[in-house]
Fold these 2 entries.
Entry 1:
Amino acid sequence: MSLPALQPAPDSAPAPAIERRSPARGRPRLQADNLTAYFGTTPAIREVSVDLRDREVTAVIGPSGCGKSTFLRCLNRLHETVPLARADGRVLLDGRNIYASGVNPIEVRKHIGMVFQRPTPFPTMTIRDNVAAGLRVVGKSLNRADTDDVVERALTRTALWDEVKDRLKTSAVALSGGQQQRLCIARALATDPEVLLLDEPTASLDPLSAQKVEELVYELRKDMTLVIVTHNMQQAARVSDVTAFFLLGELVEVAPTKTLFTTPTDQRTEAYITGRFG
Amino acid sequence: MGGVVALAAIITTLPLLFILFHLAREGLGALSVDFFTKMPKPVGEGHSGLANAIVGTLILIAVACGIGLPIGIGAGLYLADFRGSRLATSVRFLADVLNGMPSIVVGIFAWQFLVRPLGHFSALAGAVALAAMMIPMITRTTEEMVNLVPIPLREAALALGYSRARTALTVVLRTATAGIVTGVLVAVARIAGETAPLLFTAFGNQFWSVRLDQPTAALPLQIYAYAISPYDEWHRLAWAGALVLIAVVFVISVAARFATRSRFGAGAGD
């Protein structure tokens, strides 16, 4: 898993390359600082400040429409790709503000992988090409054998290798939903990002597939930073080290998962986790 | 009620069946190797064919595609990507108007801007007229097909660090390719038989010509010219020409059907 340091891709505007540094476990890797995101003039999240620490899983919970997905999409600057959407404030990746002027969002996204609610394999590509899709834009071009190596490692990491190794050249859409989702995780991991964002990654999966994805998330925290948005409080309790609770666009409370679910400090958090609304 | 609509459904296909039957009866007899390889000849000489018109039609279609495909697909991508912008809204409306424009008017446009300034009819002017008819069709099909590509798929590409342009070309356009190819083939099938826009652009030609700056023969023009002539021999050639033209359109339509199947076989959508 050692790709060369990320350089600007030839087809992107020149921007200062973001250096790869390695914080230790528990050190902040991604920090939101006074982050406010808008759709038009309506704020979807307001003044969110939170540290996401390395080698931890941070779960983001809250009722529908509370802004948890918007928050996640601000972390890799995907939010602003929607017409009329914009964000104010800072997000620091290893201390560098990814919203600073001169930072190319395309470069940012190469360092921060993302997985969506529904599996998004590219339907025109084979399984192998799907996993390798991100490699084409991260600087140095790899030869075929090196690419095959990276593909195998990414698929092994997502426990998919044994299931698909004999049909790497077939269409990715022939896989089951759960396999597609793990393929998408493998695709995000292939470029070795520092952070992985997961937006309700198990919402469209059957329980068994969901469990596999959860186990995977738990495994991945050994060597990266993960943020998972989820509707499912049991899931948050199972996979995360830290949980952040959003309500009406506001970050109400963030605490170690056990603390948040047993002794929340805010009444609204307590009301939500005991099922009084949402 | 069921009987009435079933009857309507059958009547829908009657013109096609009638045309095919009549064309086969009148045209098949006149089809021969000569038809495809020989040039038109004066009445009575025999062994005449429409080789120049067949080649002329192929050239016109090829040049029209060369002009129309990049512009049409590019415009379609723009409309899909900037759907709410003022330019996109106007272009979409005008493309729809152009789509419904009588083809003879499109021919007048090419005559005004190419034939008159250059001083003579030309294959290029004909191809431009045909391209002007293709472009709005391809633009709208491309837009619709691109809009069918799920937004999360684009976002997945952007999240991998793809630029907007790369996302559009390698993910969105490739996913929409089957549908766009179908649209292009339907457009080609439609312009292949167009006569009116060629009347005062490509004009027609009794001789062999593959030059773009010269008038060129085309199957629809030749069919028209022979059909209104007083000679039985030319009438037969016109029938054969019509049969060939409809066969070409039919083959293109079938190809369009096959193109809608994904590269990985049917059912590979979602």
Note: DSSP finds ten helices and ten strands in chain A.
Entry 2:
Amino acid sequence: MHSIKKKGFGRDLKESFIKNVFKISGLLTILTLLGIFALLLYTAVPAFREIDLKEFFTSTRWDPTSPEKPEYGLLSMLVSSLLVTAGALLLAFPVGLAVAAYLSDVAKPKTREIFKPIIELLAAIPSVVIGFIGITLIGPLIARVFKMSHGLTALNGSLLLAIMALPTIISISEDALRAVPQSYAEASLAVGANHWQTLIRVKIPAAKSGIIAAFMLGMGRAIGETMTVLMATGNARSFPHGFLQSVRTLTANIAIELGEVPYFTTHYYALFALGLVLFVLTFIINLTADLIMEKQKRKLQ
Amino acid sequence: MFNKKTGQKMKGLIHLGLVLALALFSLIQPGLAQKKMIQIKGSDTMVNLVQILAEEYMAKNPGAAIAVLGGGSGTGITALINGTCDIADHSREWKQKELDLAYEKGVRPRIFAIAVDALSIIVNEKNPLDTLTMAQVGSIFRGEIKNWKVLGGADQKISLYGRQSNSGTYAFLQEHVLNNKNYSPEVKEMNGNAQIIEAVTQDLSGIGYVGVGYLYDENGNVRRGIKVLKIKKDENAPAFSPLDKEAVYSAKYAISRPLYQSTNGKPSGLAADFIRFELSLEGQAIVEKEGFFKIGQELMEQNLKNLK
């Protein structure tokens, strides 16, 4: 009797301990996020003692070390970031969705078991390696195909980021498609629809929010990527007018300039302001993805 | 949420590793730590040269440890101001802002010229042009001349390659050739001299600028695929190539500059000894072998004064 009671007490203690460890870990994550946000905000705000807010968001010229007049306009870089990301998603999303549909509906379980880990392995390739492929392989290829003198363009960045966003898009869309209850597909097949019709008209619409979430998370992955675009897109500061032009993204600019900038100067604070813009951007994207996924879960229950 | 797997961060990590290793080493040998270990940081143009000088020096002086890191002239000067390196390498002069900051923090820089660099303008080997004037180079990089046709070349858009703004080479060209005007926003900013050479080798309409030391391969031959342009001071002046050492010595080649090292106050111990080695006949011979140029009489006298 005594020993059983002791065991029970020990288990309670252990359980509440573990529970608290989990709780603290969760809180720690939130605190870290808030901390990063606070630090960015705190370091970014002094930039606007000297920089006009309107100039910062609407000027296309960024040249903080200019001997003529330092200029701090993020528009070219913001548009470049969005352009490269949009290109990446345009390439990766249709392919990703097709692969996801293949894995969830067409492939035999055995094939799927082999394919899925391999696709997820794609996410493990270091970004610097992908960037290197961009310089030595894809860049020169773009130059040849489009008869240009070089291939260090937004398109190069988009192609590479598409490769990097694919695993996220495939993995999450596939999960969403598989989460559609079997009864949906059975009902569709029962009324005489074939597999293709069932997939296109029933399963994909049912998994819509999950697929949108996959798209958003792929976007988050692409917009925050630094090393690959830094190596592959040529980093010219001009405003982008198309995919066949060299561009400099927000992330690449921060990476290029933060190493050299004298601390606690306007330029230094301005780089943190760029970081803040990027943070807010990715935060909104991820939050939207989360909300959509939550909606999907509730709908299917 | 952020993906900052950047080169800078990697450099930072390597840097951190080196510092930790040095710190560990200094714990093991507390007596030697003060004098036998120094950290040099700065100009990417100088990093190979100083690394080789340091290796030669360490081979002659066992027990001395010199760590050489790149990062750019601005990075080196900032590190000296912040006290995180013993010697800063810089391929441009101190900016007034940096001097003010240094004095504010009690840092009194002493500056030594250890070599002379000539900045070379390179194009693809298939480019028909051989010579440009300083003014033309300036116009090209300011974005005023956009097509090779204007200069007598093929009807092709000029494709510009340059360094990033933390580079001394970037600042030097802007100051001496662009007359302190802005670079064209079309310049593709590459991660180092080697990347510019690689890009110009592939790009038929490319033009870029690199330190002379990077023009040669390991056998001392000019790299294939590029053409080193001759530069005229003005329309009527004769053209000189940076590959012509006599022209650079006598300052006939227009785009040349001293390469500097700075210490905080009068250098002592290992730092002083290393700088003396760099300025010695032997050190200067290494400078020549690495594709840079010896420093002239006047600069040398200034150096010796600063060592005292």
Note: Residues 35 and 269 of chain B are 5 Å apart (CA to CA).
